[in-house]
Amino acid sequence: MHSLPIFVDLRGRPVVLLGEGEAAEAKRRLIERAGGRPIDEVEGEGREARLAFVACADDADAAAAAARLRARGLIVNVADRPALCDFTLPAIVDRDPVLVAIGTGGRSAGLAKALRQRIEALLPAGLGALAEALFAARAHIRTRWPDADGRRRAIDGGLAEGGPLDPLGNGAADAVGGWLAAGHAEAADRIVTIRLRSADPDDLTLGEARLLGQADRLYHRPDAPPAILARARADAARHACAAPPAAPGPGLSIDLGFA
């Protein structure tokens, strides 16, 4: 990855904002929307601000402002000048508290916008309500599935495509109580073989990509392409081996190698 995507809690915190015009006002609205307090450079002296936004029309002014702020230890974003940025701003799909951020490393704001518009059309307006319902039910969920791995598999099953809590379906938030009451059984332990046709992750079928995203562990050949392994869950265990063991472990295991 070219950068680490993170979500920063700005509620009640000062954020330095320099510049005038539409670009600066757009940054001001974004800071305030996230709960931050825009302040100028003078106000920021000696304050606890950690982020700064620079929206200057003149290249030299923008570079000088970024250098001053960076020297004070602030992390800086400079509008329309990705080479001067410590961080860039993504296109945002807002289904509060669910946020989807789309970044291109400053390469193309137009591409990020086009992707945001596509995703906006896919995600239902009630998606945030589903997140709130799951949060409210967390104690019940822990009681129902006290084992962390079993709990994760149960939640994955509920949220799966066509599942009772399918986040792209209608009324998923209202279905949380019924899902818990029904006590849906966890998926049986299993191992699935995926044989790669190339090193290109785009050659994975939708089913194969979905399995990699759900897997608890991967037993892969030593020559498995890093780009393919990156499609698996970040916290899935990875084992480079010639073949999976006779008892691969609980949940979903993947036997991954070239055909």
- How many beta-strand segments? 10
Span between termini: 28 Å
How are the strands of the biggest sheet laid out side by side? 2-1-3-4
Element order, helices and strands?
Answer: EHEHEHEEEHHHHHEHEHEE
Percentage of residues in helical conformation: 25-40%
Total helical segments: 10
Task: Bin the strand percentage.
Answer: 15-25%
Largest sheet: 4 strands, parallel
Q: Which segments are poorly predicted (pLDDT under 50) over 5 or more consecutive residues?
A: none
Mean pLDDT: 93
Computed over alpha carbons, the radius of gyration is: 23 Å
What is the topology?
Elements: E1 14-19, H1 22-33, E2 37-39, H2 41-44, E3 51-55, H3 59-71, E4 75-78, E5 91-95, E6 98-102, H4 109-122, H5 127-136, H6 138-144, H7 148-159, H8 176-182, E7 190-196, H9 206-214, E8 217-220, H10 226-229, E9 237-240, E10 252-258
Parallel strand pairs: 1-2, 1-3, 3-4, 7-10, 8-9, 8-10
Antiparallel strand pairs: 5-6
